[in-house]
Specification:
Layout (H helix, E strand, L loop, with lengths): L6 E5 L5 H10 L5 E5 L11 H16 L5 E4 L2 H12 L6 E2 L2 H11 L4 E6 L1 H6 L1 H9 L4 E6 L3 H6 L6 H15 L5 E4 L8 H8 L4 E3 L1 H15 L13 E4 L3 H8 L10 E3 L8
Parallel strand pairs: 1-2, 1-3, 2-9, 3-4, 5-6, 5-7, 7-8, 9-10
Helix pairs in contact: 1-10, 2-3, 4-6, 4-10, 8-9
Length: 271
């Protein structure tokens, strides 16, 4: 595997761009191939079997681009499919859950942690499992926020409707005296300002995207796969639907210009 090979990153839509942004900032000499499964989002309400099927298809597509590592920039897919696909593909694959859980455990002072995510992520209990393995004394309170992803995908980040939903969802967690809140979906950092207004200054917000980029950097070093070249700008972006809409949104988030986004029929990559 060439050190100059790209890194594959995927999510159900635009949320994974928060992970891409961190990778670009922290390891700028790596090339990124991104896939957003915009035709089939949201993932959070779908079954484990369906998410595993989607994940396999997407990694097969990324492998045609000769990626040297894969980042599952989706909490739901990390919860449901990571363990399965790590056994099936011959490249390093990491998810976003473990890095986020690790920093949450290190951040909390009173041992009371809130986690917001999709229905799939919360129902899987994966954050609870990781956090309790780290420290069995931690109290973890999860809350599914199913409307956050479609609100972000529709560009309603600063809308009054989004603020109202944030108050309803997160208010249920605040009564548990949490001092740390994990943004357990890669779409949610895009709502950081809204969430901050709801939780106030006494609750620390944990963004797994930042920690995931750090974890990727460590793995690339361990596997001797780091590029160690000049900062890259030839990143490529693919989606399963709505390429133009995705490109416009991406250009409001990323530190580089997304010149082109291509549509891909991801169903062609079934086993």
């Amino acid at each position: 595997m060439s050190n100059l090979a790209p890194i594959g990153v995927f999510d159900s839509g635009v949320g994974g761009l928060t992970v891409v942004k961190e990778i670009m900032n922290q390891i700028p000499d790596e090339t990124i191939i991104y896939f957003g499964d915009t035709a089939r989002l949201p993932y959070g309400s779908k079954s484990k079997e369906t998410i595993i099927t989607y994940t396999r298809q997407i990694i097969r597509f990324l492998m045609t681009k000769n990626v040297k590592a894969v980042v599952i920039a989706c909490n739901t897919a990390s919860a449901f499919a990571l363990d399965t696909v790590k056994k099936e593909f011959d490249v390093p694959i990491i998810g976003v859950v473990k890095p986020g859980a690790k920093v949450a455990a290190e951040t909390t002072k009173n041992g009371r942690i809130g986690v917001i995510g999709t229905e799939g992520t919360i129902q899987s209990g994966i954050y609870n499992d990781f956090l309790n393995k780290t420290n069995p004394q931690l109290k973890v309170y999860g809350k599914a926020c199913p409307l956050f992803v479609p609100l972000v995908e529709e560009g309603l980040v600063d809308d009054s409707v989004t603020m109202e939903m944030a108050r309803r969802y997160i208010g249920e967690l605040l009564i548990n005296d949490i001092d740390t809140l994990v943004l357990g979906c890669t779409h949610y950092p895009l709502l950081r300002n809204t969430i901050r207004k709801v939780v106030g200054d006494k609750v620390e917000l944990v963004n797994p995207a930042y920690e995931t980029a750090q974890a990727l950097n460590v793995i690339l070093k361990e596997k001797d796969l780091k590029s160690n070249g000049i900062p890259k700008t030839d990143h490529k972006f693919f989606v399963s639907d709505g390429a133009d809409k995705f490109k416009k949104f991406a250009n409001t988030i990323l530190p580089c210009e997304v010149v082109e986004t291509k549509d891909v029929n991801i169903e062609n990559y079934s086993f």
